[in-house]
Amino acid sequence: MNKLIERVKVTERKEKPDPSSLGFGQYFTDYMFVMDYEEGKGWHRPRIAPYEPVTLAPSASVFHYGQAVFEGLKAYRAADDRILLFRPDQNIKRLNRSCRRMSMPSLDEDVVLEALTQLIDLEKEWVPRERGTSLYIRPFVIATEPCLGVRPSKSYTFMIVLSPVGSYYSSQLEPAKIYVEDEYVRAVNGGVGNAKTSGNYAASLQAQQKANELGYDQVLWLDAIEKKYVEEVGSMNIFFVINGEVVTPALSGSILSGITRASVIDLLRSWNIHVREERISIEEIYDASVRGDITEIFGTGTAAVITPVDELNWHGKKLSINDGQIGRIAEKLHQTLTDIQLGKEQDAFHWVVEV
Amino acid sequence: MNKLIERVKVTERKEKPDPSSLGFGQYFTDYMFVMDYEEGKGWHRPRIAPYEPVTLAPSASVFHYGQAVFEGLKAYRAADDRILLFRPDQNIKRLNRSCRRMSMPSLDEDVVLEALTQLIDLEKEWVPRERGTSLYIRPFVIATEPCLGVRPSKSYTFMIVLSPVGSYYSSQLEPAKIYVEDEYVRAVNGGVGNAKTSGNYAASLQAQQKANELGYDQVLWLDAIEKKYVEEVGSMNIFFVINGEVVTPALSGSILSGITRASVIDLLRSWNIHVREERISIEEIYDASVRGDITEIFGTGTAAVITPVDELNWHGKKLSINDGQIGRIAEKLHQTLTDIQLGKEQDAFHWVVEV
Ligand SMILES: Cc1ncc(COP(=O)(O)O)c(C=O)c1O
Ligand SMILES: Cc1ncc(COP(=O)(O)O)c(C=O)c1O
Predict the structure, then answer these.
(1) CA pair distance A273, A270, nearest whole angstrom
(2) Of A175, B15, B114, B145, which alpha carbon lies 20 to 30 A from A218's?
């Protein structure tokens, strides 16, 4: 495979940004990975090329009919300078599930992993060293056929771009205030809510803006049908600690199957903490919180790993969670997961892959 | 305004395609209209430029978070060679409604109409003369900010491209076979189903493919909540003629507010035919059809104007409509609308705008 990936060299390397002001997804490295698809020919011409603009016909189908899927994962720098990836196989599998749902051709998982590894190896100087920083990896596929017929595109481009990032939110374990949205909805069963496709994010912006205007950081979505059951947060899955047990919405078909979510469930169970994946109504949550039975709420996602929730607003009713303090379980999960990701902790689950 | 639109000349004009094999959305004219938006600066630099590729950063937000809206309308050539547009103001208003729903900046409606008019005037030789052909007009807006944060983009590009087209389907009033989809859904109330945004089309492809494999032309969507009420067809609204009355799904929030739909309702009412816009269950349709009360079903949309439906498949139950014959009302609507569009019929509603 190594030899199959063509390489075009950059003439000049960019200057690296100041690691203290990276933000999220603003800076990109010198190289990217690109591969093309054409009907009849399949995926071809895998190459590592200079990071440069994409040129597409104005009629390219991604602009009109939205076939676009993506993934997000991170490369971390260990204390001994090794570069570590967290469960990249899971992101690649999910990318393929998204492709299939969106009528897009799937990719050879080994080729994607090899591409990812070669690209990061070439760009390893871009993996920042500061606490909380990492190299964000964005694989994505877009439909490129220059034709306005509403049907699956006959050509696609797969790309991987790399961006050195600070933590997604301003600091690491900063609690978030969540607004329970009951007017707008994100996805519904039978739709594309469990695919990581661009339209889901565009569809979420209006509610996100409304929550921000009301002073909240993120939206907690309810199910589209009864507007009763908890789904997920902007780009995180959600967990509740109720009477010492952990509860999270089941993968019903309308939420994303988070890789952090799956890892958190495995960790909790390995600690003998009972985890239930089930349908949970926002009313149950409200009542349990009023009774004082909810000790923690937290979100899980690649961007911030664990985000404790310190306030929930449902219909104007404000719930303060754990007196605004970060909970014990969220804290321990965050510590353990980041330690595994940074190679500090024994990796009992074999989640970490060295580049 | 005329002087405000900058023009860059092409060096060479393309050869026009054979009008008998235009297909849909495959050929594009020599020029396009482009205008940019930046936060703080607003929409600026309206220009008519050579039709050429778009260059975007790999991190441009349209590729990742799907902020993209579009419109579709047609320019027709009248027998006396005038170029006519059908209700362009309605498309421009809908474009702005789509923009607002997708957290995108809206456009000055007069500027868009002026841009459209100037561009078509410049390209009038591209409006084909053959029966059933027209110049398809595709205005669209895409998010261009090179940043991976999930939030509304701070920059956008608005473009208008033109494509000479045959009729969307192989012939003009060709009946379609429709598959009633009850597994996949297109949109739900509180979502973005009433916006003409790219993600809605990507979300529909899987069901469309399934219908095609089963030998059907298009999908009839049911509501996402009860999977019981009729919504719309792929890119058409749907009408039923039941006991001499015409019934069409009300604009519930999850379907597109079609301009052909609105025009059909106005025409029918002007003919003293009773039209009801309401919630209609597929079961009612089935029962009415079995009783012999349904004399016609037809779709309405810019692409084919009126498409009679000659077969409906619901749960494997096949309904043959009007013995597979094109209905009287569909026929008359098609004739009247195309005559108005081509300037042959008196335009009582003032729908037609000359370029
Ligand atoms: C909608 C949505 N839900 C949940 C998640 C969390 O998934 P993961 O843990 O794989 O990052 C993400 C982000 O990736 C997301 O975009
Ligand atoms: C989803 C959808 N519904 C209905 C229509 C019909 O709308 P109009 O009559 O404005 O073309 C279209 C096509 O434009 C469409 O894309």
Answers:
(1) 7
(2) B145
As beta bridge partners, residue B164 has: B135
Give how far B13 is from chain A: nearest CA, Å: 18
Q: Within this chain, do residues B155 and B182 fall inside the same structural domain, yes or no? A: no
Between A28, A147, A203, which is nearest B191 by CB? A203
In terms of domains, do B200 and B284 share one? Answer: yes
**A241 in the same domain as A111:** no
Question: Strand (E) positions, A174-304?
Answer: 176-181, 218-222, 230-233, 237-242, 245-249, 275-278, 294-301
- Residue B280 shares a structural domain with residue B198: yes
Is B149 in contact with A190 (Cβ distance < 8 A)? no
What CATH number corresponds to the domain at position B121? Answer: 3.30.470.10
Contact A102, A131 (CB under 8 A): no
Note the pTM of the prediction, 2 decimals. Answer: 0.97
Cross-strand bridge partners of residue B155: B38
pLDDT tens, chain B, 355 aa long = 455 788 989 989 999 999 888 999 999 999 999 999 999 999 999 999 999 999 999 999 999 999 999 999 999 999 999 999 999 999 999 999 999 999 999 999 999 999 999 999 999 999 999 988 999 999 999 999 999 999 999 999 999 999 999 965 544 678 999 999 999 999 999 999 999 999 999 999 999 999 999 999 999 999 999 999 999 999 999 999 999 999 999 999 999 999 999 999 999 999 999 999 999 999 999 999 999 999 999 999 999 999 999 999 999 999 999 888 889 999 999 999 999 999 999 999 999 999 9
Beta bridge partners of B38: B42, B155
**Could you tell me if residue B353 is inside a domain?**
no
Binary contact (A187, B191; C-beta < 8 A): yes
Q: Whose CA is nearest to atom 1 of ligand 1?
A: A235
Q: Would residue A346 count as lying in a domain?
A: no
Residues of B in contact with A161 (CB under 8 A): 58-59
Give the residue numbers spanning the domain of A53: 6-165
Asked whether the beta carbons of residue A66 and residue B192 sit closer than 8 angstroms, the reply is no
Which CATH number fits the domain that encloses residue A243? 3.20.10.10
Task: Tell me if B57 is assigned to some domain.
Answer: yes
Please check whether residue A349 lies inside any domain of the structure. Answer: no
In the reported structure, the alpha carbon of residue B242 is separated from the centroid of ligand 1 by a whole-number distance in angstroms of 48
Q: Is the ipTM of this structure higher than 0.85?
A: yes
Nearest to B102 among A63, A192, A205 (CB): A205
The structural domain count of chain B equals: 2
First to last CA, chain B: 15
Tell which of A113, A138, A165 closes a domain: A165
Spell out which residues of chain A touch residue B63, defining contact as CB-CB under 8 Å.
54, 62, 68, 70, 140, 142, 198
| Run of H or E including B142 | strand B134-143
